[in-house]
Write a structure and sequence with these properties.
mainly beta; Protocatechuate 3,4-Dioxygenase, subunit A; 11 strands; globular; Protocatechuate 3,4-dioxygenase alpha subunit; EC 1.13.11.3; oxidoreductase
């Protein structure tokens, strides 16, 4: 029996805009739900131009820090929180999720959204995190300073993984390359680590 060699990756997009979005994909909770917040931002390329056909997915803990195990992300029922959402960008490169603020998964941990970015021309998805900023419930500078992933990065690069609070939730911009490129992560099946620039 002969074994087949793995095939190379293929670029993703822009076809995913026709197949992957679904009703309620960006609403982990219905807008207006008590405690609902908005996670939103822009996806830009190396020149700072908007990427109008990117698709982002988030996974997150619930406000108590528990990782949801409930099914139903693809068929929202309006009350089950699954911790998963998917949002495409518009012509301005803007995306938005209606969700809940994630809690720390263990005492003293920095809460975050796990983010995956798909965009045309990429050979594979990009993985990153959007940490809640200091001043968020249960988050201070020390919480962020002792996070293993953030502490592994040069100080000037950490800010690319920390969201900014606004009046409705959090802003997290994704820069695909160039100055202030978002730190993307390598995932080997055991855990995430900061990838190369």
């Amino acid at each position: 029996m002969t074994s087949a060699a793995p095939t190379p990756g293929q670029t993703v997009g822009p076809f995913f805009h026709y197949a992957l979005p679904y009703a309620g994909d960006r609403d982990l909770v219905p807008p207006g739900t008590p405690g609902a917040i908005r996670l939103h931002g822009r996806v830009t390329d190396g020149a700072g131009a908007p990427v109008p056909d990117a698709l982002l997915e988030i996974w997150q803990a619930d406000p108590s820090g528990a990782v949801p195990r409930a099914e139903g992300s693809l068929r929202r029922d309006g009350f089950t929180f699954t911790g998963f959402g998917r949002a495409s960008t518009d012509r301005r490169g803007v995306y938005s999720f209606s969700t809940l603020t994630p809690g720390p998964t263990r005492p003293g941990a920095a809460p975050f959204f796990a983010v995956t970015v798909f965009a045309r021309g990429q050979l594979d998805r990009l993985l990153t995190r959007a940490y809640l900023p200091a001043g968020s419930p249960g988050v201070d500078e020390q919480t962020l300073d002792v996070d293993r992933l953030l502490a592994s990065l040069p100080a000037e690069r950490r800010s690319t993984l920390v969201a900014t609070a606004d009046g409705r939730g959090y802003v997290f911009d994704v820069r695909l390359q160039g100055d202030d490129e978002t730190v993307f992560l390598a995932f080997d099946g055991r855990g995430a680590s900061a990838g190369g620039d």
